[in-house]
Design goal:
Blueprint lengths: L1 E5 L2 E6 L2 H13 L8 E5 L4 E5 L6 E8 L2 E2 L3 H9 L4 H6 L3 E5 H4 L4 E2 L11 E2 L22 H12 L17 E4 L7 E2 L6 H4 L5 E7 L11 E4 H5 L5 E10 L41 E2 L4 E3 L2 E2 L7 H6 L5 E2 L2 E2 L6 E10 L5 E11 L6 E4 L4 E8 L6 E2 L7 E3 L10 H16 L3 E2 L8 H10 L7 E2 L1 E2 L11 E10 L4 H4 L29 H9 L7 H4 L3 E7 L7 E3 L4 E3 L9 E7 H12 L13
Parallel strand pairs: 1-4, 8-9, 11-26, 12-25, 13-23
Antiparallel strand pairs: 1-2, 3-4, 5-6, 5-7, 5-9, 10-14, 12-29, 13-25, 14-21, 15-20, 16-19, 17-18, 20-21, 22-23, 22-29, 24-28, 27-29, 30-33, 31-32
Helix pairs in contact: 9-10
Length: 600
């Protein structure tokens, strides 16, 4: 007897489990049972599992009987003409939905040519085994699965147009590419208007060669002249938002140009771009530290009720300024009100982002890397016909990753550029490598895609043939301008007296043992002052009892709380963190005795 589970609940037993499964599937295909029902016999546990609950992932497949698909060419023509619908095919049992459980017992063919008598189902299209984003990648059936996962991440992080109404949106840290192109090598997903209206990346000429060492490992070299002509140019938008908040007691913030008697008043230059209403006007160039929205707020803590009634307390300056290290042009200013009726102002600053060393780029094959050098056009290698590549890619990134889709896209892009057409790179059903090679040969090029190239610096012919082609590259959202961080002197924490933490607070960089060794090895030991001197303080120590003493710096006199005024007191340099540790040890009753030795 086999147990029967319905939606995970034990519902009974049966003697012939396989017959039950067969009858349920037959009734489902004939319409007697709902199409969302799935059933499977698990041989290892001798149980029948029936699932009808919601939330399951199901996918559509064509039913196969005796080695022939149930959906015929007549059905396809009727469907395209609108005489029947998708629901009719499901109702007639020609197409059915399988979940992860029932799919274990299915034998699925990719195409009609592969069908045998043993097959139970056939794919509607091989593209349906992928998600929407993987289906946008050309020739993914020629690469490793984990490399395709990396390629999907490149597509997700690509800078394009994320929304058609980005001009009036106030999204945080949004990036928009100035120019996008439909790829030469497409898949069938690009024929969908929903995908074709949000294209990303540009078609560029790529040479696969190790050149000058600047494209070592995963780095790439980009033609500086191409960047000057606008290659991969993009815009970065930063919104600044502020509200006139109302507080208990009738007080509220005010969006105005702050007066000089306001606590925390900045210099006059900081408010130079504010209009009469205290808000910056559009199309003005702002830099870090410039006030974008002027605001004054009431004191947070009221010391006495009399001062509150007399109104003698000064207002506090709480304006919004352009972030540290950022600059740009004021793109839009929006004025509105919140649900509570408070005035709400939003200012969007636009920053032009050219390609610079350190920016990240990726292809649709999972080969991503940062810019190692922006090379002058006259120093770039060139082909016999005078073509200078826009990007130089390292050949050492290909053998270990085995991303053959990268090489196929290069050849296909070259064929499409020479033939003035789009190449179908849809996985499993697109144009084959042999077709692309033959077409490339018909245009007068070598069928394997290699060309003779010349060194741009010496003019000599390279002794090897270089793989050159066209493909779509994507600029990723990891801009080096957003990640760069530095400081010389700056704010420190109140308690530990160490540098503040974080880029937005002008914080220092954390240096460990290995970073320290690198600084010393490169002869930059003076740069370690921030590490060893950032919280240096002098404390008086009684050399007799070893406890912290009391010392008057101005009178240069001191005394020990244990040994009195005649105690020998010495000033020693320690870190503020160590001094806090001493105080905490004394607070819990531990005697932290400091033994002073002779200065070496």
């Amino acid at each position: 007897m086999s147990f029967v589970f319905l939606n995970g609940v034990l519902s009974g037993q049966i003697e012939e489990p396989r017959k039950l499964v067969k009858n349920l599937i037959t009734d489902r295909r004939s319409g007697k049972l709902p199409s969302s029902l799935n059933v499977r016999y698990r041989k290892e546990t001798d149980t029948v599992v029936i699932n009808t609950d919601g939330g399951r992932l199901v996918r559509a497949l064509i039913v196969v009987k005796n080695g022939k698909p149930m959906v015929t060419k007549e059905d396809v023509s009727l469907l395209s003409d609108g005489h029947i619908t998708w629901g009719d095919l499901v109702k007639d049992g020609k197409i059915e939905y399988l979940d992860a459980d029932e799919e274990e017992d299915a034998y699925v063919a990719l195409s009609e040519e592969e069908l045998t008598a043993e097959h139970t189902h056939m794919e509607i299209t091989p593209l349906s085994i992928f998600g929407t984003q993987v289906a946008m990648l050309p020739f993914v059936n020629h690469s490793n699965a984990h490399r395709n996962v990396t390629a999907v991440k490149s597509v997700q992080q690509g800078v394009g147009i994320y929304s058609n109404n980005y001009l009036i949106r106030m999204d945080n840290d949004s990036m928009v590419a100035v120019d996008q192109q439909v790829p030469i090598v497409k898949t069938k997903m690009y024929d969908d208007p929903a995908f074709n209206s949000h294209v990303f990346g540009q078609n560029i000429v790529v040479a696969v060669v190790s050149y000058l060492g600047y494209n070592m490992d995963d780095a790439v070299i980009i033609n500086k002249a191409s960047v000057d002509r606008g290659l991969f140019r993009s815009m970065f938008f930063r919104p600044y938002k502020i509200e006139e908040t109302r507080y208990i007691g009738g007080q509220s913030d005010k969006i105005i140009i702050p007066d000089k008697d306001v606590i925390g008043y900045r210099s006059e230059d900081a408010y130079q771009f504010l209009d009469e209403d205290g808000i910056v006007f559009p199309s003005v160039e702002v830099d870090s530290g410039d006030v974008l929205i002027g605001r004054v707020s009431p004191p947070r803590f009221i010391s006495s009720i009399d001062k509150f009634r007399l109104g003698v307390q000064k207002q506090i300056e709480t304006s919004v300024e352009c972030r540290t290290g950022e600059s740009g042009t004021v793109d839009n200013v929006f004025l509105t009100s919140t649900f509570d009726g408070n005035k709400y102002v939003s200012v969007k600053v636009r920053q032009d982002r050219r390609v610079e060393i350190g920016d990240k780029f990726g292809s649709r094959s999972g080969q991503k890397g940062v810019v190692g050098m922006l090379l002058n056009e006259e120093d770039m290698p060139f082909t016999y016909s005078g073509i200078t590549p826009d990007l130089i890619f390292s050949p050492y990134s290909l053998p270990s990753r085995m991303s053959m889709s990268y090489l196929l896209e290069l050849i296909a892009g070259k064929v499409g550029a020479l033939g003035g057409r789009h190449v179908d790179g849809t996985p499993f059903t697109g144009e084959s490598e042999e077709e692309l090679r033959n077409e490339l040969k018909s245009y007068g090029f070598r069928e394997n895609g290699v060309e003779t190239m010349y060194n741009g610096i010496t003019g000599e012919e390279m002794k090897v043939r270089i793989f050159v082609g066209d493909m779509m590259y994507i600029r990723l959202k990891h801009f080096v301008a957003n990640k760069i961080q530095w400081r010389s002197r700056g704010p420190i924490q109140l308690l530990t007296r160490q540098p503040t933490e974080g880029k937005s607070k002008s914080g220092g960089l954390r240096l460990g043992e290995m970073e320290k060794d690198c600084f010393v090895a490169y002869g930059a030991a003076l740069a370690l002052k921030e590490r060893f001197d950032s919280d240096k303080i002098s404390i008086p120590v009684c050399s007799k009892c070893g406890l912290t003493a009391v010392y008057n710096v101005r009178k240069k006199t001191g005394y020990c709380q244990i040994d009195g005024e005649d105690a020998p007191i010495k000033l020693i340099e320690v870190s503020a963190s160590f001094k806090i540790l001493l105080d905490e040890l004394k607070a819990v009753g531990i005697y932290p005795k400091i033994l002073l030795g002779k200065k070496v």
